[in-house]
Specification:
The protein is mostly helical. The chain has a single domain (2-71), classed as F1FO ATP Synthase (Up-down Bundle). It contains 2 helices and no strands. It has helices at residues 2-36, 41-71. Helix 1 runs antiparallel to helix 2.
Length: 72
Amino acid sequence: MELTYIAVAVLLSFCALGTAIGFALLGGKFLEATARQPEMAPALQTKMFIVAGLLDAVPMIGVGISMYMLFA
């Protein structure tokens, strides 16, 4: 049972780390593209928010799997 707690902690920490790195890269590339072509900012912002929503789904899946591991 103790190994399950460690596995859940590792799973959640990697989900959080991966999401943080993904958001950092996404924001940086968005700012870079907006600085390069300011007239494309609204279209880029829409696409950025779609990708950010998909990027947020990854840790939610990890939380679901970790809750399953803990309580099942």
